[in-house]
Write a structure and sequence with these properties.
Elements lengths: L2 H14 L5 H5 L2 E3 L8 E3 L2 H8 L3 H11 L10 E3 L3 E4 L3 H11 L15 E5 L13 H17 L3 E5 L7 H13 L2 H6 L1 H48 L5 H33 L2 H9 L3 H13 L3 H25 L9 H4 L3 H10 L3 E4 L2 E4 L8 E4 L7 H16 L1 E9 L3 H13 L6 E7 L2 E2 L16 H16 L2 H4 L8 H22 L6 E2 L2 H4 L7 H18 L3 H11 L6 H10 L2 H11 L3 H20 L8 H24 L9
Parallel strand pairs: 5-6, 5-10, 10-11, 12-13
Antiparallel strand pairs: 1-2, 2-4, 3-4, 7-8, 8-9
Helix pairs in contact: 3-4, 5-24, 7-9, 7-12, 9-10, 12-13, 18-20, 22-26, 22-27, 23-27, 24-26, 24-27, 25-26, 26-27
The structure holds one RNA strand.
RNA sequence: GCAUCCGUAGCUCAACUGGAUAGAGCAUCGGUCUUCGGAACCGAGGGUUGGGGGUUCGAAUCCCUCCGGGUGUACCA
């Protein structure tokens, strides 16, 4: 049920005789901000009056006369400068709400489409541990997939795994020099990530060692630049003071950036040189960084030994990430990683060349695009292909295979430029009929407002993050004071299950509750908190509905019959408010699709849970005054439970019958 | 330097794309109730939406300009 669409249709009819831009004006229907203005409002009279050169209130009154809407609304009211306020009739509302009862889809209509929507999300590099940065793509992408699929679209999810890059050169090198076949075979997942960490640390050491002199010089340069800028400021004329000041502060910023870079490099160097084992390793592998690249190149060229190692290691790397996906309850239709496209890359470059889009520049093959300073490089000087090349091959494959209307890339905002270029090339390829969207998202920040890192400066592992959330949830759920009130008592297994649902749900919900494009601060304490805008609040509201239904000993099928017999009646404003909320699920889902913004559904669920709490406070079900009132309330409780459960499910979050 | 995004209550965030008195949650203070489960509900204080100008019936939202931040900027993904 999408009430604004219905209202729009009515307005369009009324507007047709007045203007030829009826669509545009009819679209100006909104829910009201304040209930005293009714349920919905139409704001079209003001701009329309300008077009007609007439008084807006007069225009509004005329529209109301032409409007045929009395089956849905009470007589519309003109207010303020010319707002048209609409209040839904109670009997219309109860009819619609009755229709939701017994409906699997909670009244959300299905929008069948011929074409599919491809969603590319999560896409971690295997062989590296997943970290906090992977949360957003995974959680947002999964929520979008669930919602769009529920809306009736043919959704194809694809996890574009990084399974062909330098990280395999690292593991292969590690295996050859630090590995032990028996140990690796016995415990591959753990052993391989250990090898990765060893080699990676040595590479970081080597890189830091190489760059530290230059970094220190750049600090000195920056410092003298600051001094110069300060001198210039002292001598600057009044009119140029401002720009001189700006120069100083930007020089200072660069300077502190350079100092931070030196410190980071120094840390990595010290970590190795102050440790006997590590410094021995480092001296035994003096050119490890180049050697790793060579191993990677050999793999790409089809070297039998490296290829067979890759084939041996890959399944274990996938096991590692699949464990996380299982825990997050995230699945994919396809997992076509970079390696899948490897053989198609030279063809892509050839095609770009033959169509005159790509050309040689500085020994690399580039696509120059108007509006961009730098070209998109599709093949390096040394002949290797890049991220961009793979993405073009992937795009081509998806078009042939899935015939999509839309392709969504759920990827960090920092890659915006890459996607702008990719889409620009796609345009030149003649792919403008597909809607390509970079569903970008912001960074997860720590408490300090800087990208979230551990104390040692590395990214926080995803699994330990989830463990932390579940552990915290368990403390709350298994609080002995609270557990005493449960009858029957809560067994250990149920406690574990609830902690998992609440803990994982908290992380997902917190992520999805922020607008996807903004950065947010990660605060575990607030996420798992019992009160506030959290998943626990919504999950708890659901549990309350279930308890009431249990006490009433009524299943949904019983309530359907009961309502058919008794009919609806709104005896308290809280009932009507709740019914109105329950009807709006589809609105929030449609809004979510429009902006690819899951926070719209989150907001809706919080608002619904809050509306339910008020209802729960004011409208006793089992002690209802009449059978009719009780039937209405039972129906509302039942529907609320269903809507909350469905809404959370569409976000990838589970519910529990009690908590 | 260029490009791009952002600045909203003490804190963390919204605001249906230009609509009515800018909303939630924390935190603070006060209240309700012998709980269909109190992880509840009600109320109060808290704002010149970074500053200034403009566009119009109407601006957090659009334009200009300052101030302050983030991010990206040819062979990483």
């Amino acid at each position: 049920m999408h009430l604004p669409n219905l209202l729009q249709d009515r307005f369009r009819n009324a507007l047709a005789s007045v203007t030829d831009r009826a669509d545009q004006y009819a679209a100006m229907i909104r829910p009201t901000a304040d209930p005293k203005h009714g349920d919905y409002q139409c704001n079209c009279a003001m701009p329309l009056s300008k077009e007609l050169g007439r008084n807006p209130r007069e225009v509004a009154s005329e529209l109301i006369e032409k409007l045929q809407i009395d089956d849905v609304c009470n007589p519309p009211q003109v207010a303020g400068p010319g707002f048209i306020n609409l209040t839904i009739k109670d009997d219309y509302l109860s009819r619609v709400t009755s229709g939701l009862l017994g409906d699997e889809r909670c009244g959300v209509s299905s929008q069948e489409g011929e074409q599919s929507i491809v969603i590319d999300f999560s896409s971690p590099n295997v062989a590296k541990p997943m970290h906090v940065g992977h949360i957003r793509s995974t959680v947002i992408g999964d929520a979008l997939a669930r919602c769009l699929r529920f809306l009736g679209h043919r959704v194809v999810t694809d996890n574009h795994l990084g399974d062909w890059g330098t990280q395999f050169g690292i593991i292969i090198y590690g295996y050859k020099h630090f590995g032990d076949a028996k140990i690796v075979d016995a415990n591959p997942v753990q052993e391989l990530s250990k090898l990765y960490r060893i080699v990676n640390q040595l590479i970081e050491y080597r890189k830091s060692k190489k760059s530290i002199d230059a970094l220190e010089r750049s600090v000195m340069d920056a410092e003298s630049a600051v001094q110069l800028a300060k001198d210039a400021l002292v001598n600057a004329e009044t009119s140029k003071q401002k720009s001189a000041k700006k120069t100083v502060s930007s020089a200072e910023r660069r300077c502190s950036g350079a100092i931070a870079a030196v410190e980071a490099a120094r840390l990595k160097i010290d970590a190795v040189e102050n440790d006997q084992v590590w410094s021995e390793r480092a001296s035994l592998h003096p050119r490890i960084d180049e050697a790793v690249l060579e191993e990677t190149a050999k793999l790409h060229q089809g070297d039998p030994e490296n290829l067979s190692l890759w084939e041996r290691f890959l399944p274990h790397c996938k096991d590692e990430i699949n464990r996380v996906y299982e825990r997050l309850d995230v699945t994919f239709d396809h997992t076509l990683g970079e390696s899948f496209y490897h053989s198609q890359l030279s063809g892509v470059v050839q095609k770009l060349r033959s169509e005159g889009l790509a050309q040689d520049s500085d020994g690399a093959v580039c696509v120059f695009l108007s509006g961009f300073d730098a070209p998109m490089i599709v093949q390096k000087q040394d002949g290797a292909f890049l991220y961009a090349t793979t993405d073009l091959a992937t795009l081509q494959y998806r078009l042939e295979q899935f015939d999509p209307a839309e392709i969504l890339y759920v990827v960090d905002t920092r890659q915006s430029e890459h996607f702008e270029k990719l889409f620009a090339v796609a345009d030149q390829f003649g792919l403008e009929h597909v809607k390509l969207v970079h569903v970008n998202f912001g960074t997860v920040l720590g408490e300090d407002g800087k990208p979230m890192k551990t104390r040692s400066g590395s990214l926080i592992g995803l699994e330990s993050l989830l463990d932390g959330a579940v552990e915290r949830a368990k403390k709350v759920v298994c609080d002995p004071e609270r557990l005493r009130t449960f009858d029957p008592p809560m067994e250990h297994a149920e406690q574990e299950m609830i902690a998992e649902a609440v803990g994982i749900g908290a992380i997902k919900f917190a992520d999805l509750s922020h607008h996807r494009t903004s950065d947010y601060r990660f605060n575990l304490e607030k996420m798992v908190a019992l009160d506030g805008n959290t998943s626990a609040y919504v999950q708890y509201s659901y549990a309350r509905t279930q308890k009431i239904l249990e006490n009433a000993k009524k299943a949904e099928s019983d309530i359907v019959k009961l309502i058919a017999k008794e009919g609806w009646v709104f005896s308290h404003p809280a009932e009507r408010n709740l019914a109105l909320m329950l009807m709006k699920l589809e609105e929030s889902l449609v809004g979510l699709h429009k902006d690819y913004a899951p926070n719209q559904l989150v907001d809706y669920l919080l608002e619904t849970a809050k509306t339910y709490s008020k209802f729960n406070e004011n409208c006793h079900v089992l002690r209802a005054e009449t059978p009719q009132i009780q039937a209405t309330r039972l129906a509302l409780v039942c529907l609320t439970g269903r809507v909350l459960q469905l809404g959370l499910h569409l976000l990838g979050i589970g519910v529990v019958p009690r908590m």
